[in-house]
Amino acid sequence: MKKKLLTIMIATAIAQMSSAQATPTLLAIGSLSGTSDLSGLTGPANALESGASGDILGGLGSGLAWAGGNTFLALPDRGPNATAYTGGSVVDNTQSYISRFQTLTLNLTASGSATGLPFNLSPTLTSTTLLYSPTALTYGTTAGLPSAIPNVNTSSKFFFTGRSDGFGSGNSLNANDARLDPESLRVSADGKSIFMSDEYGPYVYQFDRTTGERIRTFNLPSNLAISNLSPLGATEISGNTSGRVANKGMEGLAISPDGTKLIGLMQSPLIQDGGDGGRMNRIVTIDIATGATHEYAYDNHQSDTNKNYNSSEIVAVNDHEFMILERDGKGLGDGSSAVVKRIYKVDLTNAVDVANLSGEAALLANAVPSTLVMDIKSILNANGITDTNIPAKLEGLSFGQDVVVGGQTLHTLYMANDNDFVPGTAGPNSFYVFGLTDGDLPNYVSQSIAPPPVPLPATLPLLSSALVGFGALRSRRAKKSQAL
Hints:
The chain is α+β, with helices and mostly antiparallel strands. It has helices spanning 2-17, 233-238, 360-364, 376-382, 423-426, 459-483; strands at 25-32, 63-66, 71-75, 100-110, 119-130, 132-133, 158-159, 182-187, 193-198, 204-208, 214-217, 250-255, 261-266, 280-287, 293-299, 310-316, 321-327, 341-347, 370-375, 394-399, 403-405, 408-417, 429-436. The protein has one domain (2-453). Strands 1, 20, 21, 22 and 23 form a five-stranded antiparallel sheet that branches. Strands 2-3-4-5 form a four-stranded antiparallel sheet, with no helix packed on it. Mean pLDDT is 88; it is low at 1-21 and 459-484.
C-alpha cells in the first residue's frame, strides 16, 4: 500500500511538472563524509604549509562532470587556504596542494518515502587522480617561504599546485606555470580524457583520465591574459589594464553533446570590459580538433536589484544552447542568507563573435539572448531549506542519466558546493539532484560518453607473451615432426 501511495504521489507531481508551466523539482540530496581522499599523500613529507595533511578531502563542488552511468568526477579548486605566512604579505594565503580530481559514484535510488524526496542519493569516493605535466614546471621561489615543489615530483612527473607564486616569465597564459586553480571539468566523448579550465591563466588543459598526465594545452585568446603577474591577487588587479580579473578567470566549462566543442565561461568581466562588478562576461568556444576559438558576450544580470554575483558554471543543453549558473557568495559558509542562485539558458545561434570588441557597451549591444530556467533558491526554500542553509558556493553543475518516474522521463541535473575544505563552517560536500522535463528543456540532448578502457592487470601482458611463445614452440615442433 505504501509503495502504491508513493507511486501515485510521484505520478501526480510529474503530471503537474508536465503542464505548460513546467518547473524543475528537487529529487534528492546527499553528502560525502570523511576527511581524507585516496591520493595517499599522507605523512609529514606530504603535509601542506599549514600542517594540514596532503590528502585532505574537500571543495568537491568547484566542478562536477558526468562520466556515464552513476559515475561522476568532482573537482576541488586550488586547495585549502593557508594561515598567513610569516615574513609579511608576499604571497596569497595559498598552499602547495596538488591539483586533482575525485571519482565518485552517486547512487540514486527510490526512497520509498511518502512525504520526503522521491530519491535517496548515496555518494561514494572511489579514486583520486593527481594532475601532472611530463615536462618541467615553474614553481614559486619567493624568499622566506617553504618550498613549493611537491615532494612526490619525479624526473618525468611535475605536479600542478595551488600556490599563487608558481609562475615564470611571460603573460598569464604560460603553460609552464605550475600554479593551477581548476574550476571546471568535462569528460571526453571517448571517456579516456578530461578537459579542465582554471582561473590563474586562464588555462584549458586536457589530461589523461587514468594517469592524470597533461596531454594537451589549448591556446586561448590573448585578450584573456594579464601581463603583470603577482603572487598577490590584489597586486595583479591593480597592475593590469586588460585581461581576466584575479581569481575570476575561466570558472565554467561545458562540452557539446557530440564531444567536438568546449565552451568556456569567464566568471567575471575582463578588466577592459568593466572588470569585477560589471555585467558583460565572455563565453569562449573551442573547437577540440582544430583549437579554433570564438568569443560571445553574456549579460550576467548585474542590472537587476541584486548586485555583486558572478557566473559559476556552464553546461550544454544541445549544440547551441547552454545553461549558466549564477550565484552570489551568500549563504552557508558566509554567515549570511542566500539571495541569488539561478540558472539561465543562452542560445548561441546567430551570436556575434566579439573577439575584436571590448568595453561593456560594445558587448552589451551584442549579448546573446538568455532566459531564466531555474530559481534554485526558491526550489530549495520550497523543500524546507532556509536561505542560511543554502551553500554560499554552489558551483559544480552536471547533467546525469535520465530517470523515469511515474511513467515520465526526467533529465537529472546534479549540483555540488565548494565548501572550501571547512565543513564546520560551510557544511559537508553536498550534492543536489533536480529533475527537469522536456517542458523545462526543449531539445535537450544528452552527452554521449563511451566507457573508459579497462586497464589490463600487470600479469596479463606476461601471460600473453607466454602464450605467444608457447604457440611458436608448438609451431616449430610441428614443422620438425613433419620433416621427420
